[in-house]
Amino acid sequence: MRGPIVPSTCDLRVFQQQIASTYGDKDQRRGIAGTFMYFMEEVGELAEALREPERHDLAGEFADCQAWLVSLAHLAGVDLAEAVNTKYPGRCLRCQATPCTCLSKP
Amino acid sequence: MRGPIVPSTCDLRVFQQQIASTYGDKDQRRGIAGTFMYFMEEVGELAEALREPERHDLAGEFADCQAWLVSLAHLAGVDLAEAVNTKYPGRCLRCQATPCTCLSKP
């Protein structure tokens, strides 16, 4: 008998600590510019997977972009969870509405 | 008297729902290609902020990249939290170690 399906939770703060523990030393030795290049490599793979999802691991490419973004944040001394909570508190900060009613970024 | 400083938590699953509620309709009308372009615009701004952090809002640029990545994931039908948990379970999947001992991605 199958148990209940529990939606995945993923705490960005915990994930940043995890990525830092696993890859932080390598990231530090490589530096920001080199790490940014790896991030861009994954973004390129994401573009390819978005274009042909049936021939790629789309979820995996998204996960890779997320991981490298977190690596970069840690290297740059940014707490990504805090940065997100500050700028994205739950409603559009420009028009104060959910859903957003801004004319910008159509 | 100040209260304790509580580190920010940010659940990617909750954030994806929040972004979908706030911007999902606009993202849907714009489509994947147009949304990817906005994501790239933010990645460019992130590069600039990494280069000159003293003259930019580095944390804000990271937050924007995160938000647009989540928008893209939602549009593409990907649960980003689940994708991350699947591919990044807490140790390097290649060498099984934390910290990673792989020779790849120096």
SSE inventory with pairings:
The structure is a homodimer of 106-residue chains.
Chain A: H1 12-30, H2 32-51, H3 58-75, H4 80-87
Helix pairs in contact in A: 1-3, 2-3
Please tag this protein with its features:
mainly alpha; 4 helices; globular; homodimer
Could you characterize what this model shows?
Two copies of one chain form a homodimer. By secondary structure, the first copy, chain A, is mainly α. Helix content of chain A is 61%, strand content 0%. The first copy, chain A, contains four helices and no strands. The first copy, chain A, has helices spanning 12-30, 32-51, 58-75, 80-87. In chain A, helix 1 crosses helix 3 (58-75) and helix 2 (32-51) runs antiparallel to helix 3 (58-75). The mean pLDDT of chain A is 92. The interface between A and B is large, with 60 and 60 residues.
On the 0-100 scale, what is the average pLDDT of chain A? 92
Number of helices of chain A: 4
Proportion of residues in extended strands of chain A: under 5%
Q: Which outline of chain A best applies?
A: globular
Using only C-alpha atoms, the radius of gyration of chain A works out to 17 Å
Stretches of chain A where pLDDT is under 50 for at least 5 consecutive residues are none
Largest sheet of chain A: none
| Percent range of helical residues of chain A | 55-70%
For this structure, the quaternary state is homodimer
Distance between the termini of chain A: 47 Å
Largest interface: A-B, 60 and 60 residues
Count of distinct strands of chain A: 0
Structural class of chain A: mainly alpha
SSE order of chain A in H/E notation? HHHH
